[in-house]
Design a protein that fits this description.
The chain has 271 residues and is of the alpha+beta class. It is built from eight helices and 13 strands.
Length: 271
């Protein structure tokens, strides 16, 4: 067993408590696909139930911490203490359609990070159907269960598989995405769109994908994933190569060599 802090134990306990119900609800969604009403309302309930379970578990462990929740919004806590950033179901559209690729993502944000700025110190991304637990602690590496993770060592774009998110109705700037896609696609071995940004980050950390870019992500989609990629030896930035991802809501993740090449293509496409 890998030694880790008590906070990682809290995160592991929270995701594992929410997972069985999500698995059951996912089985129900597959049945609901044939109903006239459709599974949309049911999925919203699954999301909320999972969040409720996670919130109860986290509150028991650290009652004075604040929270930033996808469903429940901001919950104030002691401003000098860290806060939890929670996405109880990342990949809702996959879940809704019976596609078995979604995750729970929880991060810890400490308000007193380096330079007095808030920073993510712990994170977990959990895939309930495969029982894969990707977790990281600042300065102590990224892990899949007890196996240390490293970003891929590929150096050339023509060998690289890159993940992304594609704009859809009500979300994203399709013209901007198309320009970026047009710059990157001809240079790489493949582009993938899996539908859970949290797992995209985790897969970059695990070396399954060589890079990932996406616009318009919220903190609960990205916070744990950023830490995972960085602790696995990778780089995460905005499209200009700066550390302003959350502010600009744009994310580029890869190993050092590919990050440099991708960021040039990205920046060039947006001139």
């Amino acid at each position: 067993m890998v030694a880790h802090s008590g906070l990682i134990t809290v995160l592991q306990r929270a995701v594992r408590k929410a997972a069985p119900r999500l698995r059951r609800d996912f089985g129900e969604v597959e049945q609901l696909q044939v109903s006239r009403k459709g599974p949309g309302d049911f999925v919203t309930m699954a999301d909320k139930r999972a969040e409720q379970t996670i919130v109860e578990e986290l509150r028991n462990a650290r009652p004075d911490w604040g929270m930033l929740l996808e469903e429940g919004g901001k919950v104030e806590g002691d401003p000098d203490k860290p806060r939890w950033i929670v996405d109880p179901l990342d990949g809702t559209t996959n879940f809704l359609h019976g596609i078995p690729h979604f995750s729970i993502s929880i991060a810890v944000e400490d308000p007193r990070g380096a330079g007095g700025k808030p920073e993510i110190t712990h994170g977990i991304i959990y895939q309930p159907l495969t029982d894969e637990s990707f977790w990281a602690e600042k300065g102590r590496g990224a892990w899949l269960h007890d196996r240390r993770l490293r970003v891929s060592a590929r150096r050339f774009l023509d060998e690289a598989v890159i993940g992304t998110g594609i704009p859809h109705i009500g979300r994203g700037d399709f013209a901007r995405w198309s320009r970026i896609y047009g710059a990157i696609a001809p240079e790489v071995a493949g582009i993938r769109r899996f539908g859970s940004a949290a797992l995209d980050f985790a897969w970059v950390a695990a070396g399954r994908m060589d890079g990932f870019w996406e616009d318009d992500l919220d903190p609960w989609d990205s916070a744990a994933g950023i830490l995972l990629v960085r602790e696995a030896g990778g780089f995460v930035s905005d499209y200009r190569g700066q550390d302003r991802m959350m502010e600009k809501r744009e994310y580029l993740a890869a190993n050092g060599e590919l990050h440099s090449k991708l960021h040039k293509l990205l920046a060039g496409s947006l001139r």
